[in-house]
């Protein structure tokens, strides 16, 4: 047809629909003739009939059964006349909708009236003879081709499947269909019409089980791949009006079937639906005004319509459900050799697989599988016990085959029939509803031979409707990212229904949907790597139904300090408020304090001090990483988060060990360890505690001496120090209090509490404290170990210059009280890093040499980090370190240039370079000065002196620095026995040798200019913060500086020679 004739056809059809031109005028010519006088060419008239029939079949309110279309009376008359006057083969070739309707129309009205011969009815209607087999085969071939091109899923050669299935349920079988559907709703629950695959499976199951001998009815229901029958049954159950005379007849059959069961439509409440949440089975009750209860123990539990309940373990095989006068036993936990399958994204129940089934098709990507018998899967391995130890579970993906010892294997495969489903990142769950991020994908699979490869997807969101054209591949599959439908643009979370329209539905916004699936999507919000942070507040957010969130300045985030285990996002939806439990995307640790009866959030990497009163305390840990393992004091619990996101760390697991490991940490599947917290047991009577929030810092301590006033000294990084005093007795203070700092004292307990308001104080800064005695003498505020109490105020430095860096390094050079869990270093470390990055941008030692020259007033070794913040310092040649003060502890680095290379140089390519060299040292007497036995023995003597008689004793004590040292040095050392052989009187104490070996490894890395990689590897292995690793290694370097000089010179000679030769 030409473009002009197509335009005329659309115009005339529009005029007819609007009533401007009667269909009689359009069709007012005899078929096969064309002439003037206002007559219209027959081809154009038939094209108008074809277009009208097709739009009626695909339009709003239509059904997948083509004989259900209801054209205007004159259009119907004209179609019948065309069927009688035009050869059927011509209709098939040019007007497929009209041709398919022509074959099915007489069967729908006359079959069984006078004869059950299919071909006689068709022959009588179209006036053609189909007595011989060839004519019948040709008819079936043309019909099958035309029907499949339109989108009718017909197949085979038998008349029942080919001709009767597309007719839909016959009116004579409406009572049978009604008994099947009503009985299925009573004993299986109502169909989940929001999921085409689930609803299609429901209607097929109830008809197959309750009408096993009605072949024609079964074929019609199996033909209905869009689950139209189930959708209209649910519409009847909800009180909708019938759309046609045939549907009114079917609705009346539903009413009769309901009365046969002694019910009314109001009594027909759907059964509770099974769902999976975390590590437990639950039931979701249908929203209804009927009073409902569920009994899974000794007594029934009354539930509200729409409520979700999680059933405690052990799970019964069946539970009793009551709704009004109805009482019914419904299956719950898997029976013997039975398998339950859930959608892992939404938690919705998919199917209960009997032992004889070996294959299950599912329109989903990820699954949770439950069984009472043990089983294995390729990706998950052996199934693990759930909250009910008698039920095993595994998390698998589509395409896997499960192996059972007591039943046949089960394969989870992609649907072979047409289906749509979602593959995306789940942000939260509300029962069996999932809230997806905007970066998900709609998956579509169809038969491209039925209706063609080009289709239209419609997305309905409230009053907004979006359309997009797609073309499936040769295999019938298509992937449609949410972004292509505009869901990557910011918006409020809403329920979205994706519909695949019937073939040929272009141009009709209300066209019939063949397939559909419904879920919630948050437009513009991608799946975050961590918990939800700083997202624009949704317009439909319900704060009263939310929990664990922080709403500030128009943004909503998961509150990391909230004591809520699972944050809840309350969203207003059509008819109700949905409470989406947000999926954890990061670890969160709480300290459960038994004595206080509360729990407090533990910031990542914090040190928690536990005194005698905390001996029964526990910890609660939430993690989304199912493959990770938990480390508590060096003891490993493998994959504890497979079933649940939250686990308890008991008091028994927190008992002190001798291994020196004080970590609560997570080991990722790739081996990386991430530190969550460090624990320190103490009997400090000072009861020191520091609590930090976004707004303030609170220090509480019970001083061990009497006092009547407190002096606070604030030393800002970039301005002059200032002081303030707080009196608690009769004597007045010499200084006014400081704005932003308050101090109180408890008269009965002596506890001193100091609060700092962050916004009103300069930062970065160091805060020191002094107590004034009754005799008005000032003395530093000390902990039980006589360490001065010092706090840090975090902030961005005003200037990034060398003098500021030196001042900040001097703050960090002093020891911190262990009881404060490294608060000073944690607060000032970001500023230290940022200034070091600017001042040391040239990576020359000269630019930061004053930092290396820092000397503590008491003459002890400085504790500020050098290796972690700037490992490149120690890759420099010996000349760079000339001129360092002797008191700095680093002046020995200049002597690296005095050590001559040995002949021959040791190889560096072997697996044990240190051990091989130490063996040679023990036997080779011709080594240059500085590389012989005496050099190593002297290095050990100096190391033992420093860790025994200086402030570097913290490396081998029992505090957090010693814990970090043991973790860093705890890896296997090849050649440990050889290096210990140079440590005279070192029996029973291998730690100094381990420190020496660690210094040697760092020296070798520096010689190869890979010091940064070396630090990264230790952080990966231990999970300790980079600052803590750097501080511990810097202190080890100061303790064993002779080892570093020895091996840095040795390996530098080796690497230099290697570069020359290669």
From TrEMBL:
Name the record gives this protein: Uncharacterized protein
Organism, as annotated: Rhizobium leucaenae
Organism classification: Bacteria, Pseudomonadati, Pseudomonadota, Alphaproteobacteria, Hyphomicrobiales
